[in-house]
Design brief:
Blueprint (H helix, E strand, L loop, with lengths): L1 E13 L2 E3 L5 E5 H6 L7 E6 L5 E9 L6 E4 L11 E11 H4 L5 E3 L10
Parallel strand pairs: 1-8, 2-6, 3-5
Antiparallel strand pairs: 1-7, 3-6, 4-5, 4-7
Length: about 120
């Protein structure tokens, strides 16, 4: 049996941009992506702590060391610059492997979105 479990989590980052005219996705500083073991194109759940919105999209890498968190396309309507987000990816795995699997949990500086 396969179950879905948390694979990666970037906890409490601030939205730095919202670009309604972009094709879609979320742009994430590539340093944060690496720390959380998230890859380009991966499906991601976005939880907005400010308004309770939850949405899914895919990831594109942003410039390293910038702290960029930009929602693109229609998702830009669901956030405001400065909103605090939790970003979560999931993986399917065998239930026995899931019992010992440890997700990548990242807690960046909340003001800069950068790793301490």
């Amino acid at each position: 049996m396969l179950i879905q479990v948390v694979k990666s989590k970037i906890h409490r980052v601030k939205v730095t941009g919202a670009d309604l005219n972009y094709i879609g996705s979320i742009t994430i500083d590539e340093d944060l992506m690496d720390a959380a073991n998230i890859i380009e194109g991966e499906k991601i759940q976005i939880v907005n702590n400010n308004n309770g919105e939850r949405l899914e999209t895919y990831v594109i890498p942003g410039s390293r060391g910038t702290g960029e968190i930009t929602l693109n396309g229609a998702a830009a309507r669901r956030v405001a610059v400065g909103d605090v987000l939790i970003l979560i990816t999931y993986a399917f795995m065998d239930i026995e492997k899931a019992k010992t699997f440890k997700p990548a949990l990242v807690f960046p500086n909340e003001e800069t979105n950068r790793l301490s």
